[in-house]
TrEMBL record:
Lineage start: Bacteria, Pseudomonadati, Bacteroidota, Bacteroidia, Bacteroidales
Family annotation (Pfam families): DUF5128
Name by which UniProt lists this protein: 6-bladed beta-propeller
Domain of life of the organism encoding this protein: Bacteria
Amino acid sequence: MKRTFSILLFLLLVIYAKEGYELATQVNPVQSFNTGSLSDVAEEVIAIPLETNAHCILSHARLVKRDGDNLFLLCRQQLYHFSCSGKFINQITYCNSLYKNNILASDYVIDPVHKQLIVTDGQQHIQYYNYDGDFLGKIDLPADYAGQSLGKLAYYDGHIWTTVNRAVLRKEYNSQLCMEQWLYKFDTTFHRVETRKLTVAELGRLTIDYALEPEVAVANRQVYVQAPSLQPDELLQDTLYLISRNKLDITDGYSSILPIRISSRFLVSTHYNPNDEDKCYTFCYDQQKSRAYNVQGGLVDNFYGTGKVRELQAMDVYSNSYCFYKSSEEVKKAFPDRKTGDNPVVFIVKLKA
């Protein structure tokens, strides 16, 4: 009896997902491509060759962010400051106890109001710096955050937002320890302002109720959370389902973790796996043209001829600007003067509006 019920439930879920997909595709027929180039989605791509000198030798560029003409990035858990033309300005943090600015930086946010950088080591330690690299102070998160894992930080509306993994005992599962995902809102001194329990978005099919690598984003002036899909082949179907059910209307208190980021025109999902580049993907759904690009290995850079863009990183919470970096032989065509060992070239991608 129990087995029969399980089979019937599974069949109902399959039919439910199929009807949702068919409804979406009938209303809005979609062209789908498994190849694509940056020019399909980008209005422009700006190249920033980072200056190389004895004080700054970088192998890569992560978490690239900007404020005006100030460009910041992480490399080997150290925070660097450049101009938007690529001129090296200063190193903000160091992985060396001889420096006061000593912290193994795992993440940071720019506070553009106070022109300060808020840096975390991924544990409970927070440090503050101005753009000149002057140390402004530090705080430790309260003891009740011990054992809780902070996700990527985001700055929006004068506050810091992040996801938090919380281990809780669930009585309905025989008091087993289960992981819950929450959205936390802090002021800039990490006093908690608001919390919100999160659940993976309902997609009309069976999914895993846990999201990897969640990030905070903003649409309709409201905060939501996005995480890359564990099933990229299903992204088009999932996107059309979310559209057909009006689940992309982000409202105050929105608690679903979406598989896509919402820009003004595109719905985007990207994932980079440094251990298996074949599992990298970029998904872009053009809401104006009802056209989808779901490209394994990433879109091709046909602006500067650097090959496939395997790692496309969102630069801001609004999801309209992305970036990637290339170095060595990959940039020879566009920058013949760049030598082996020079710092990477950062490329900023502005999506079409």
